Batch of 3 targets.
Target 1
Amino acid sequence: MFETLGSLTASPWIYALVALSVVLDVFLPVLPSGVLVITAAAAAAAAGAAGPVSVPGPEQVPDILLLLVIATTASVLGDMAAYRLGRRGGARLDRAIARSRRLTRAQERLGAALARGGGALVVIARFAPAGRSVVSLGAGKTQRKVAEFLPWSVLAGMAWAGYSVALGYFGTQWLGTQWLGTAVSIVALFAAGALAAFLVRRPPSAPAATPAA
């Protein structure tokens, strides 16, 4: 898998692959969109460290800023597609979600948390497994206005893309080896996902007791 990804990072097709993966993983959370972003960013860092002599042309190196813009934009586009689907899906969408055990569990666990936390949890849930799917579909199903959901979707996309790109790029620069930087960065991405899942599932703190008069 990593050999295939390594060859793709030397081609402009990596941008299309990243965009497609990030858009679609709102519907298929098993797609490794974060792994793709990290691998591309790590390739950019490794190519930069190799120097201009070893790099035949800029088209063979993922541009780090372009990668960030594409990942962020694709994240927002995927969110809005799921939002529209949730807004218009009705009973058919409910049945489709019910057939997915993972989405059903995530919806049950995240639903109450999102209701408690509002927009900030949209950003946190972007890192949680299936959290993006539940947030985007749920926002549409509950008829949230676009103006209420879109700014948080943009912020969530920027945070997730920035974190993933920074992991791959700076991890490879600091560790000095592309494969090691990629591996450590992927572990860090999954760790952030586990932390995000814990935060959105954590029960609300009990209100302070009012002292007796």
Note: The longest helix spans residues 64-98.
Target 2
Amino acid sequence: MRGDHCPGAPLKPQDLAKEQGVSLAVVREALVRVVGEGLADRLPNRGFAVPSFSDRRWQETAEARRTVEPVVLRMSIERGDVEWEARVRAAHHRLVRTPAYVPQESEYYTSAWAEAHRAFHRTLLEGCGNSALLETFDRLWTASELARRWSAHRNPDRDGATEHRRPEEAALARDADTAVALLVEHLTLTAAALTDDSRP
């Protein structure tokens, strides 16, 4: 998540155990877990590796999000009450006030911003009142976290503040069509950054 290992790079258990000062068994268990979350690959007879930019999973996950989240957002706008509106406003305020980058933490965005970002997107959808749909969002969010960090790094000129403010305003104005269109645009830009090999 910090960008210590490049896309496609091998993840050697022995090296990781030495770097982290833990046993080989702990590293192997951790690698199995991150593979399960879609954040690493287990390669037959070749160990573990970081997924590549071109891995089809990122586009499939983005497609799944563009299919599921607009439906849930529309439900949230229809069903959300005043308490939901207040939570959306608070989550957006926290996101705006949290620094996205701190040089000493990593080249990618900070863990605090990552959590504020997740909380904002989830809060937008929580008005739907459907725990099964929110669990689906949680799984897709985790599966796309690595791609999201790479995308931000490869497209640093995006106006993230505007991309989040506009759907918030549309949702609170109960303008579902506009909010959904803005959300789909936001999700599409994130995935598109990983398909352009000319970027650094």
Note: The chain has a mean pLDDT of 88.
Target 3
Amino acid sequence: MNKAERIKRMRVPAVDPALARRLPPGQVLTERFPILHEGEVPVYDLETWTLRVFGEVDRDVTLSYADIMAMPQTTITCDIHCVTRWSRFDNRFTGVRFRDFLAAAGVTPQGRYVMLHGDYGYTANVALTDLDRDDVLLAHSFDGAPLTDKHGWPLRLIVPHLYFWKSVKWLRGIEFMNENKPGFWEQNGFHLNGDPFREERFSGEALPIPEDEWEKKEFD
């Protein structure tokens, strides 16, 4: 049974009416930070680590970690929502706003969609309009300290208004595209867009789902 099918079988939690404007339907609020990912946790040497921007752009760019740390830095506080039904409020991430990153890198997108590439072949698709927001970061720190390896160090994307699988860990490539092609989880039963308040969890379905998948995972 794949991950989408397991989540569909979960018990659907009721949302506290007092939190309804902030907590999406079918979510459970937690103060813990569950660790969920596919594959092994990468080990990096920052002297050789790179991030590539390519595809439908005016020019390809390959950046070092030092290049990114020299860009304008921003700290945001945001809520995050995982498709496995947990939500966590008031998370403080520091990094480079996506729009500031493009400006600092000197890249002009020609495509309207983005495929985000993490290590070990992980991908997630996002519309460029979903990245061009004040609260979308290429993040390197959480609560004033570097991200832990398991939470995506040295660099991960943070897209707070979409389900958290779109916030790709271990980010290594940003590919601009003319078409909205599905990424890894989108090819395995998950929604192409992933808006939590619309419950866009699965492809082409109007959802009922539930909650204990994330409770079986590791936490920080």
Note: Confidence is low (pLDDT under 50) at residues 205-217.
